[in-house]
Write a structure and sequence with these properties.
three-stranded antiparallel β-sheet; 376 residues; alpha/beta; Aspartate Aminotransferase, domain 1; Aspartate Aminotransferase, domain 2; binds pyridoxal-5'-phosphate
Amino acid sequence: MKVSHRLESIPVSGIRKMFDLAGPDSINLGLGEPDLAPPEAAIEGMAHAAKTGKNKYGPTAGTPAVRAAVAEWFSRFGDMNAGNIMMAPSGSTALLEIAQAFIDPGDEVLVPDPGFVMYDPLARLAGGTPVGYGLTEGDFQPDVEDIKARVTDKTKIIVVNSPSNPTGGVLDEAPYKALSDIAADHDVAIVSDEVYFCYVYEGRHRSFMSNLDNAIVVNSFSKMMAVTGWRLGFICADENLMPDLIKMQYHVCASVNMPSEYGILNALPCLDEYLKNSCEIFKKRRDLISARIGEIKGMSMSPPRGAFYAFPSFDLEMSSVELAGELLKDGLICTPGTAFGAGGEGHLRFSYAADETKINAGMDILESAVKRLRRS
Ligand SMILES: Cc1ncc(COP(=O)(O)O)c(C=O)c1O
């Protein structure tokens, strides 16, 4: 059977390509998932649910007690209740559902460039036109002037991602306010992807959960609780949007993973303590990788303030794909900046969701490769 034109027009993810080329003993700084164990309470809650018969379809929007508990925990970021929360089968699925529910052919969707690999394809698959917007040098804030210049009467959504994959940038107050104003003035919705909200090492997370008049927020337990395999996330939105989101979700999956929901429910009371510990671990690794990159002539980066990615620029006469290919030959997996859009050229992404031994081994490879390539 011939593939649809829609899917045919979309390239395979640049991240997957690197994995397919890697040798078995390579140092992997390409992975976007925490290497920590999930909270014990989450595993117990999930196992108990599965053992006690919670293995059936549930309500499409998620189990009411879980929606209520999620709303209560996240109320620290904005006024909300269970009616503002729809559980979803992952952050990825939440993004797909929002795209399919709100984008019409001809609609323009502003996406960060560089930005997470799914934003552009999901807009296209829904028939929309993704339009990349730039980030400021060094601190990777959404470039407000560039966004203003790109907003047209066809613009439906501005996608914002803080803390950011791939840059590690964390949204400051001024661009946060400017984005909210642009959304209100032009009747455009912000879709705010906040799946890394819990990994902020300097400053604080600014959530659009406090601005549901203008924004829909996507979150996920994948990175928060190190349960990428459980496939559970949620959408936080104005109650007026819920009937459409729930209708969409019914046609995507009917309902979400119920044992995972109960695992999350059981772990929420200890989440603050769990995250404090994870954050300390990632901050140490962030400091290590920043120091190591800082010592390499030809690479440059300000320490990333959030998520678990380093996105240094390099000063070599080659593309990011070529440099990532050289590193792969030397046994280090990372991701070329252009996997995240043309705006990622001149950068590599390293995930530091890996232990310090691996980070050091990876940085040794990077250091000698860059030295060699600068000489040649
Ligand atoms: C920025 C961002 N958003 C969303 C996701 C999706 O996460 P999940 O589908 O595991 O919830 C990811 C995963 O890497 C991500 O990096």
